[in-house]
Write a structure and sequence with these properties.
This protein has 108 residues and is α+β, with helices and mostly antiparallel strands. Helices cover 23% and strands 42% of the residues. A 3-stranded antiparallel sheet has the order 1-2-5, with no helix packed on it. Strands 4-3-6 form a 3-stranded antiparallel sheet, with no helix packed on it. It is elongated. The N and C termini lie far apart (54 Å).
């Protein structure tokens, strides 16, 4: 009887483990949904521009950090529109100075 319970327990563990493996294998792998080949740069020292070569179903937009003239710190501004192709552009608002360029991505 002990052999049977050990085999049954082992079979339950194997079935339980295989169940999880099946679930994991059906999950997407690789960069699906996430943009790849992305670059960003300063746009005339007043803003940022960004582009991704492959959207892979995801989206991206340019982001810029700007320093306020009144000493109020750094403001991060993102382009208003998510892109799947082409250049995204955003500029520092009035009474700020360009600090750095960046990019924001999302999977859907």
């Amino acid at each position: 009887m002990k052999k049977w319970s050990i085999i049954a327990a082992g079979g339950a563990v194997a079935a339980f483990t295989l169940g999880f493996q099946g679930t994991a294998s059906s999950a997407p792998t690789g960069p699906q949904g996430h943009p790849t080949g992305c670059t960003f740069q300063s746009n005339f020292n007043n803003g940022a521009m960004a582009k991704c070569e492959n959207s892979n179903g995801g989206h991206y937009k340019a982001a810029v950090d700007c320093t306020r003239w009144d000493g109020g710190g750094v403001v991060t501004i993102e382009a208003p529109r998510w892109r799947t192709s082409g250049w995204s552009q955003v500029y520092c608002p009035a009474q700020t100075t360009f600090r750095s360029a960046g990019i924001t991505t999302k999977s859907t």
